[in-house]
Specification:
The structure is a homodimer of 208-residue chains. By secondary structure, chain A is an all-alpha fold. Chain A has one domain: Tetracycline Repressor, domain 2. Chain A is built from nine helices and no strands. The longest helix of chain A is centred in the middle third of the chain and has 28 residues. Chain A binds a DNA duplex (30 and 30 nucleotides) through helix 3.
Chain lengths: 208, 208
Amino acid sequence: MNNRSNTRQQLLEVSADLLCRRGFSGFSYQDLAQQLGIRKASVHHHFPQKADLGLALCDWTEQWLLQGFEHFDRQGNGAVDRLQRYLRASAKHAFNGDRQCPLSALNSDMPQLPEAIQERLRQLSHTELDWVTGVFRMGLDNGELQDHSPGEADPRAMARLFIFTCKGALFYARLQGQEYFTQSMSLLLQQWLPDTHDNHNTATGITV
Amino acid sequence: MNNRSNTRQQLLEVSADLLCRRGFSGFSYQDLAQQLGIRKASVHHHFPQKADLGLALCDWTEQWLLQGFEHFDRQGNGAVDRLQRYLRASAKHAFNGDRQCPLSALNSDMPQLPEAIQERLRQLSHTELDWVTGVFRMGLDNGELQDHSPGEADPRAMARLFIFTCKGALFYARLQGQEYFTQSMSLLLQQWLPDTHDNHNTATGITV
DNA sequence: CACAGCCAACCTACCAGTAGGTAGGCTGGT
DNA sequence: ACCAGCCTACCTACTGGTAGGTTGGCTGTG
């Protein structure tokens, strides 16, 4: 029984893991070969240049993201619940093994990446932003969320702030303590909950 | 006239710049030597191991931070103005030359850094958090800021959220567009402004 | 003053290790 | 016969780091 290029898939999965742990320039073909028990030249057979692997990792990441979003949409009940699932998944991914999200990882050494990957990366972050924006729009529409700022609420701006904060918190919480990720995201979400009496009841408070 | 170890200072400055642009493992002694017009071995004379340079960079960064904070304290008028100065300085640093803040840069390749540097890094992020916390406490005390969430306002939690968001926004705005940094930080700050009629007047709105 | 000694700062020349990448050969399934 | 998949063997470039030598300015001492 041959693996019928199972190896390629395994390479992608190991790469994705190493990417999150050490960044794109933080792992080598040697690392990949070692973990799969093959030789370095064999890795080059599947991904001739490391840039090819980079592109493939972008595709892999996109699938990973979309699969997550689909899951949150299926299981989630309303906007706030979806966001909380997103946050819980993010925290689990990051803190089980000291990883970053693959997007942040690629973003880290973006300046020295080929232009093709940079463009793909912009596209990826757009995909994520689109989903979160959709969730915020849903929350604003059904009254789960509201923006107390003057003017009309802008779900895209809120989503952007949400993502920026989430990524920053994941990043810094590795250093300062995981509990601060939860704390910060709760504090952010709190401020978008509508003003109700229940809001002062911890039972309905945001718990990520 | 000898430089009387001017070289060491220059090495630190070039290192700090390269750190922000490419991360700690993203530049080499060869790079430093080239930029100063000396040989690689001479760099080793000043910093025998790269870890020594790392530690020295932490000290350098601390001075850089403290100097900035002192500046904001002297020039700033109240809490919100201080925060805005902090944000403007951050944006200027980051977007003039596609740099990260040195703390984020070190944080990026933290896992593969020696323990001594990791500890120093925790200390550094504490220094930053302390200053921002102080500013938030000032703002809460003098009524410039308020937290609409239930329970007593926690200036440290607010400061943490502020910093996380700022770092995340700096990081992601390189990819998505600088203007979103300003937009997001404004949106965050807006929600901590007290509810006044003026708040609906754009003239007194937050502009970073 | 002259001179010896010291030392920071720099140099050339090297090391082992690893990076990404290539050339070409073997093998087993279709 | 073909070819994906894997191999050995190799390349160049570069990494952090070391050994050992040269220079030239400061210093204390006769």
